[in-house]
């Protein structure tokens, strides 16, 4: 036993008695040793604190405090995927393991979590042993057992390999809990079996998407008319054909009742409807439950409450990107601007903008809702601590609103190479630079406020599948079923010419949105662009009703398209390739707006791919290490994930100038004309750019 053990485990007299009174240490010597050990402990603690990033400590401390209140903490930043109200479901599973192991669960955005490193920091802060589990918006991300026996790693493997990607975090945690409850040996065997079985292909998806439902509806419609009509049309023809065979009787011995064939056809139609309803019974495209109003307002209320106390709010769930000195400087700049001529309140929300949050990652919608929650006019700055983006929105101050919206330097709004490489995205320095720009922004005579932002998808209904018999493709399916029945009769009777004439009369329609990523070329010719622009513009003119009250977006898109064509739709024949592309994008956005669908951003890699589904870092040129965070479609996102070095092959190129067109020279679409640089910024910005070019106020 060492001297330290003796001091900690027994009295001084007992410790000295074992060695003899004449040879024992005197109490003052023991005290000096204890003081030295305390000093060393303090030194090591200080060194560890210095080596631990401040943001990790603050984030871990906040999460540890939440786990002291409840062993399950669900973020309020993912209401579209994991509503905060699902905490009770996670808690029920955590309590039902049957292993007697204390379980602590954190549900956080994937970008805000640091895996086992964050779990370790939270455990150190909480000071309680148990099984710590980290879950993101899709699956169990990491798990570690501290001071208890639990097959954490094998359980994570089971939850990842046995379930498809769309299973959802709650089902993933349920599978994780099952594996933990089986014990170490069974969990290890189950993990090995799952890894071997699904090494190359993951299990089939549990949910279908909107395009799958459209396909189901199309098939149902085709069968619902095709089967009974085929019976009604083909059976009599076959019967007459049999009567014409040599030696066949001219009349049947016992004629069938006239009602029998229609009854059989009606029964077949009913059977098709019942079978389709049973087979295609899916009602949602996602495992996420519909969020409640309290889920959708939780984060906004939290941020608004924080801003009511302090004009700078930093999300405690995320890595902290502003240190004390930067916060002090930012507060000083805010006070100076508020006291300046034409200035006013400034509210800075350092909060992640996520595809699964209440605003669907749209900074403008977030700022608009936050302004409504805070209830005060001012300059609202939204800074994303995860991606490093900064946006500023003016509500009611005497500032040039459009200058702040569209003219911020890219180094401030999106960052540069240095800020993208920095862990804190240099948000402190960039926010300080933004305040300098705000100070220099032109003042206006009247307070200015931007219009309402383009709406995002309804988070309550966005995952709902259209009813089978009400989907857009059901009625075309009925028509196609009729054609199929006629085609079958035509094959039997040889009447193919009639079918060709009917099909020839059909006017070409714009392709379905879901097919655009697959059918749109990367190097379209000028005739192709001309045909696409003419088709889309004609469809917009047919769908647009100028007398219909409500949304102005269809009219704005149509006006901008006509400005590019000098007010004449026939100007498409003489328009340049860049103008044809812009007309096509504006027409598609206008048609989507007329149909009540959100379409503000198209795929920035190839705008012909249609609407964007999310943001992703992409490299647009071969051999260039520079990456851009862009809104892209599902196909480009999958390519950026699986083969990021090939994304540049998907970039849309346009024919170069007319003088170079004979040589086949092409350029990326953003370089074809300065107007197209607005395309990645959204349809709203493209409309503004067109108006600026044509001098329309």
What can you see in these coordinates?
The strands form five sheets. A four-stranded mixed β-sheet has the order 1-2-3-4, with helices on both faces. It contains 27 helices and 14 strands. The protein is of the alpha/beta class. The termini are far apart. The longest helix is centred in the first third of the chain and has 34 residues, at 210-243.
Strand content: 5-15%
> Stretches where pLDDT falls below 50 for ≥5 residues?
1-28, 37-56, 245-250, 495-505
The assigned structural class equals alpha/beta
Task: Provide the residue-averaged pLDDT.
Answer: 84
Summarize, please.
The chain is of the alpha/beta class. The strands form 5 sheets. The chain has a 4-stranded mixed β-sheet, sandwiched between helices. The chain has a 4-stranded mixed β-sheet with strand order 5-6-7-8, sandwiched between helices.
Which features would summarize this protein structure in a list?
697 residues; alpha/beta; four-stranded mixed β-sheet; 50% helix; disordered N terminus
Which SSEs are present, and which pair or pack?
Elements lengths: L2 H7 L2 H6 L9 H25 L2 H16 L2 E3 L12 H9 L7 E5 L8 H11 L3 E6 L4 E7 L5 H10 L7 H14 L1 H14 L12 H34 L16 H20 L13 H17 L2 E3 L9 H16 L6 E5 L12 H12 L3 E6 L6 E6 L1 E3 L1 H6 L3 H4 L3 H5 L5 H14 L2 E6 L25 H20 L2 H10 L10 H4 L6 H18 L9 H12 L12 H18 L19 E5 L9 E5 L1 H9 L10 E3 L10 E3 H4 L10 H11 L4
């Amino acid at each position: 036993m060492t001297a330290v053990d003796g001091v900690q485990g027994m009295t001084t007299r007992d410790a000295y008695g074992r060695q003899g009174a004449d040879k024992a240490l005197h109490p003052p010597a023991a005290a000096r040793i204890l003081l030295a050990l305390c000093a060393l402990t303090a030194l090591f603690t200080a060194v560890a604190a210095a080596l631990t990033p401040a943001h990790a400590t603050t984030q871990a401390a906040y999460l540890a405090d939440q786990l002291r209140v409840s062993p399950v903490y669900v973020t309020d930043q993912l209401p579209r995927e994991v509503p905060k109200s699902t905490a009770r479901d996670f808690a029920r599973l955590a309590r039902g393991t049957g292993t007697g192991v204390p379980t602590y669960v954190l549900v956080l955005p994937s970008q805000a979590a640091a895996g086992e490193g964050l779990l370790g920091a939270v455990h150190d802060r909480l000071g309680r042993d148990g099984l710590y589990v980290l879950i993101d918006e899709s699956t169990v991300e990491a798990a570690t057992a501290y001071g208890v026996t639990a097959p954490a790693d094998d359980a994570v493997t089971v939850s990842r390999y046995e379930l498809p990607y769309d299973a959802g975090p709650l089902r993933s945690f349920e599978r994780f809990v099952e594996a933990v409850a089986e014990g170490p040996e069974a969990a290890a065997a189950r993990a090995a079996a799952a890894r071997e079985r699904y090494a190359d292909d993951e299990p089939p998806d549990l949910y279908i998407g909107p395009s799958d439902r459209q396909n189901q509806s199309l098939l149902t419609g085709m069968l619902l008319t095709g089967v009974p009509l085929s019976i009604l049309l083909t059976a009599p023809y076959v019967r007459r054909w049999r009567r014409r065979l040599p030696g066949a009787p001219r009349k049947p011995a016992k004629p069938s009742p006239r009602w029998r064939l229609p009854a059989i056809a009606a029964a077949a139609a009913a059977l098709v409807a019942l079978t389709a309803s049973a087979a295609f019974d899916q009602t949602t495209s996602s495992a996420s439950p519909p969020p409640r109003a309290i889920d959708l307002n939780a984060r906004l209320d939290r941020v608004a409450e924080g801003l009511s106390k302090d004009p700078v709010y930093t999300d405690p769930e995320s890595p902290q990107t502003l240190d004390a000195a930067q916060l002090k400087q930012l507060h000083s700049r805010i006070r100076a601007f508020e006291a300046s001529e034409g200035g006013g309140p400034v509210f800075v929300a350092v909060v992640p903008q996520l595809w699964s949050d209440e605003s669907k990652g749209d900074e403008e919608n977030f700022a608009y809702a936050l302004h409504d929650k805070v209830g005060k006019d001012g300059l609202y700055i939204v800074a994303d601590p995860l991606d490093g983006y900064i946006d500023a929105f003016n509500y009611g101050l005497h500032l040039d609103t459009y200058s702040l919206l569209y003219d911020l330097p890219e180094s401030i709004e999106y960052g540069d190479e240095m800020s993208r490489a920095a862990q804190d995205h240099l948000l402190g320095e960039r926010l300080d630079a933004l305040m300098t720009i705000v100070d220099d922004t032109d003042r206006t005579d009247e307070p200015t406020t931007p219009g309402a932002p383009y709406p995002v998808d309804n988070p309550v209904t966005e995952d709902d599948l259209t009813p089978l018999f009400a989907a857009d493709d059901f009625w075309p399916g009925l028509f196609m079923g009729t054609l199929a029945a006629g085609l079958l009769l035509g094959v039997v009777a040889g009447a193919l010419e009639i079918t060709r004439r009917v099909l020839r009369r059909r006017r070409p329609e714009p392709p379905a949105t879901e097919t655009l990523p697959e059918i749109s070329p990367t190097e379209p010719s000028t005739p192709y662009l001309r045909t696409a622009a003419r088709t889309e513009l004609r469809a917009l003119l047919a769908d647009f009703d100028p007398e219909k009250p409500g949304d102005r977006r269809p009219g704005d898109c149509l006006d901008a398209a006509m400005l590019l064509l000098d007010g004449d739709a026939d100007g498409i024949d003489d328009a340049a390739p860049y103008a044809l592309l812009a007309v096509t994008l504006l027409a598609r956005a206008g048609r989507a707006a007329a149909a009540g669908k959100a379409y503000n951003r198209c795929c920035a890699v190839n705008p012909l791919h249609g609407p964007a589904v999310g943001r992703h870092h992409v490299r647009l040129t071969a051999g260039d290490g520079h990456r851009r965070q862009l809104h892209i479609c599902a196909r480009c996102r999958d390519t950026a994930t699986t083969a990021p070095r090939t994304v540049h092959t998907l970039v849309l190129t346009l024919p170069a100038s007319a003088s170079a067109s004979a040589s086949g020279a092409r350029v990326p679409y953003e370089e074809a004309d300065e107007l197209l640089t607005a395309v990645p910024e959204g349809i709203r910005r493209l409309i503004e750019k067109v108006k600026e070019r044509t001098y329309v106020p």
